[in-house]
Amino acid sequence: EPEVTQTPSHQVTQMGQEVILRCVPISNHLYFYWYRQILGQKVEFLVSFYNNEISEKSEIFDDQFSVERPDGSNFTLKIRSTKLEDSAMYFCASSEAADTQYFGPGTRLTVL
Amino acid sequence: QKEVEQNSGPLSVPEGAIASLNCTYSDRVSQSFFWYRQYSGKSPELIMSIYSNGDKEDGRFTAQLNKASQYVSLLIRDSQPSDSATYLCAVNRAGYGGATNKLIFGTGTLLAVQP
Q: What is the largest distance, in Å, between two alpha-carbon atoms of chain B?
């Protein structure tokens, strides 16, 4: 069964460093998303992406964040200058239509 | 008012019993509703989607939707210890021009099935 994959599973970085989180969505899906979940809190929407552009972004998704689909398979989330409060699980999701979303296993980001 | 509300639990049920999980939402225009299961440290795993008023059954799971009351529920029959997890209710919110959508999640209900 096709699934969303994410790498790395765990990323540790120093405050102020740039990180890139990678996702490979399900192959025939056209809509892509990033969510995050701070430990003990709810899953929060960050950004949606369709037709090679951002469709919507949340207030969390400020100028430090960017997304890219560099080729036909990868979808990346870049955080330019990480802060302590960026420590969270980051989930990539994809959907075939603008509806049911399937989540990847997540990347645990730890900012020291 | 929170957009999607769930009782955080824990909800404790004995093995073999029916577990009933509830969710309310605030946006009346919402059209799609989802239940995800999340084991500790793992990602949300889709259990069911529901779009129309009434019941939708899939194996041991039944989702119920009442749009007039802005209420969604999930029933788990013959609960097993492996069902112990956090159950997330999510509501689909259409994006600008309907091009995409985002999921608004509740905080989740922790279910503990006692052997």
A: 49
The alpha-carbon gap from B41 to the nearest alpha carbon of chain A, in Å, equals 9
Contact B95 A41 (CB under 8 A): no
Please write the tens of the pLDDT for every residue from B64-83.
999 999 999 999 999 999 99
Phi-psi region of A64 (alpha: psi -120 to 50; beta: other; left: phi over 0): alpha
CB within 8 Å: A100 and B88: no
Residue B98 in this model has a pLDDT that exceeds 70: no
- Which two three-digit tokens encode residue B5? 């509300």
Name the DSSP class of B101: E
At which residue do the structure tokens 């709810």 appear? Answer: A42
Across all residues in chain A, what is the average pLDDT?
95
pLDDT at B10: 95
Nearest to B115 by CA among B39, B17, B8: B17
Q: A58 to chain B: nearest residue by CA? A: B102
Q: How far is CA B69 from CA B53, B75, B113, in A?
A: 10, 18, 28
Q: In the predicted model, what is the mean pLDDT of chain B? A: 93
Residue A54 CB neighbours (<10 A): 14
Beta carbons of A22 and A6 less than 8 angstroms apart: yes
CA-nearest of B2, B88, B110, B51 to A35 is: B88
Distance from A56 to chain B by nearest Cα, in Å?
6
